[in-house]
Amino acid sequence: LVMPLGQLIGSYTQLQTGLGALARVQEVLALEPEHDEVPERPVAGRSPVVLRTPTGADPVPLLQLDGVGFGYPDGTAVLHDVSFAVPAGSRVALVGPSGAGKSTVLALVEGFYPLSAGAVRWAGTDVRELPRAALRARMGYVEQEAPVLAGTVRENLLLAAPDAGEEQLWQALSDVGLTGVVQRSARGLDVAVGDDGVLLSGGERQRLAIARSLLARPALLLLDEPTASLDARNEGLLRDTLAAAAADRALLVVAHRLSTVIDSDQIVVLDAGRVVAVGTHADLVDTSPLYRELATAQLLV
Ligand code: ATP
């Protein structure tokens, strides 16, 4: 009796998981198509849209949020009058308590939702006036739950850059500190990722997703650091990865661990959807009580 009962309970759990997945698929199917797509080709009577990517010397920031307000369709306002800039080549971190709106800022930069107030600007131009596909091609976005696909390491990397050569793939792995893990397998780049392969830890998966993003050479990398605890080694590796990624692009990183972003050019402190302070770690420890509290809780002061 025990065995069939166990199987029945297992099937019930599977059914619940399946129903959850089905609900999410239905949510996606119900979404309205993006309506503010701007054509990349010039339209008669309209001047062609030029997507400029400033360099470090340019006075216009690569990305700017200007008085951004937003609420999810089903709820109350989440962001209020959020303004900050990410100059080309710089490293900016978003920190703040859980629920402050950090991940939402990244979703808005990616253009997943329409704003209720303000603007997101790329090189000074409101992104609503720019071709979305071209804009997204200049941004890499690595979510908290790194979306690593079933398949091999090579397949995962080639998704972003189908023409990348062997050397580029190994370089990308080296930038994120994964060379050793992949080299340990006799199959090298053709080792499977997942249950029967390598790269199982959350930290490793996220670094593989970062490597994939970097291969597409984005001008701006958006990264949502995993909330789940990383061990000290993975935390150190993530810090090194960010330093390598920042070498020739701008970075906007949502950080739960201040230690990974302590050396950012600017740290934006969000609290209940508002920017309450902006500065370097040293500035903020002196000027922002909330930042000092976060830093003290993480034993950084
Ligand atoms: P954490 O540090 O816990 O990841 P966060 O600062 O990144 O938090 P967000 O995830 O941006 O915060 O969430 C801000 C607010 O928006 C929260 O109150 C959250 O419940 C709500 N929220 C987030 N995503 C959605 C969504 N898809 N639909 C409705 N509300 C949402």
UniProtKB/TrEMBL annotation:
Source taxon at top rank: Bacteria
GO terms under cellular component: plasma membrane
ABC transporter domain boundaries: 63-297
Keyword Transferase among UniProt keywords: no
Keywords: ATP-binding, Cell membrane, Membrane, Nucleotide-binding, Transmembrane, Transmembrane helix, Transport
Compartments reported by the entry: Cell membrane
Membrane topology type: Multi-pass membrane protein
GO molecular function per UniProt: ABC-type oligopeptide transporter activity; ATP binding; ATP hydrolysis activity
Principal subcellular localization: membrane
Similarity comment: Belongs to the ABC transporter superfamily. Lipid exporter (TC 3.A.1.106) family.
Name of this chain's protein: ABC transporter
Residues of the full protein shown: 295 to 595 of 595
